[in-house]
Amino acid sequence: VGRRAMEVMLEQTPDLLLLDIKATDLRGLELLLLKRSVEALEHIPTLVMADAGRTPIKQQALRLGAADILSKPLDMVELVPRVRNVVVAAQREDQLAQERAQLEELVHRRTYELEHSRQQLILSLARAAEHRDNETGNHVIRGGRFAGIIARELGWSQERAVMLEQAAQLHDVGKIGVPDDILFKPGKLDPDEYDLIKRHCAWGKDIIEPYSSREFQMLKSHARLGEAILHVRTSPMLMMASRIAQTHHENWDGTGYPLGLAGEDIPIEGRITAVADVFDALSSKRPYKDPFPREKCFAILREQRGTKFDPDVLDAFFRRADEVVAIQLDLMEDDL
């Protein structure tokens, strides 16, 4: 009987269920229990009719979700307003549920729009530093994606890894303060400049070869400039971006700049971004170099394990190298 009643309710979706629980038949309570387990029916209010004096049955019916209890024999004068009150209350609850759902949808949509706007602002700010030599902005997007892949391999939560992806896109924002003639110097270094460059680690020679001593000192200041631009204490993401901007040129062995930090004194987000940034720089075209083949890029990274790069971070990068390459191909530019 109970299941047949359930089938009828599913077919007709009544506004109210009047349930008569007889003194010798407790199947009505079973129906209440069944109705609660079906999402499409649980909202239908139930008015239970039970014999006077059956207090335990009435209490159990209320515990199982009955909206109201009527004692038998029924008083018809009482029945109509009680039914009306239950139906009106249910209608109000349905209306409130719809309004809550609409509000949740509005909040969800607004949250999405705000997040999308924030991501666009982050990308625009990052591209402000890159657009002069990278109009598409794919370099900063790739670097962020690479950083997120490494972070997840290191066990970061999805939320924190996504924050890192966004923050890492701003790692070179300080380049806004670097003049074009330094960023785009196409010529070869003179012997004195070349001797200076050789004192840096191997990756520095490949990446920043065209810069003279004076120009290189100015270029290094972009890390401090980026940190100052991004230092906003009210935003965890921008605080992370600030640390990245200041520390992504620090080396594991302490030979980096601008602070000369070493080992775990370098914030982990800076160590991760360093690997992501160098790989993308090696594999991309720059005014002073053509892109290197992927295996050569990997070889250069491996050579600097434990010197420039945190070994654990670099190992995480290589464990997810297939994903890194997939992102690289997906965001490929003509220079790759």
Structure description:
The structure is a single chain. Helix content is 61%, strand content 5%. It has 336 residues and is mainly alpha-helical. It contains 15 helices and 3 strands. Helix 5 packs antiparallel against helix 6 (158-168), helix 6 crosses helix 11 (236-247) and helix 11 packs across helix 12 (268-282).
Across the major sheet, the strand order is 1-2-3
Query: Which of globular, elongated, flat, extended, rod-shaped describes the shape?
Result: rod-shaped
Query: Strand fraction band?
Result: under 5%
Main sheet record: 3 strands, parallel
What is the ordering of alpha helices and beta strands? HEHEHEHHHHHHHHHHHH
- Gyration radius over CA: 33 Å
| Tally of alpha and pi helices | 15
Helix content percent band: 55-70%
Cα end-to-end separation:
70 Å
The count of β-strands is 3
Question: How does the helix and strand content classify structurally?
Answer: mainly alpha
Query: On the 0-100 scale, what is the average pLDDT?
Result: 76
pLDDT under 50 segments (min length 5)? Answer: 132-136, 189-212
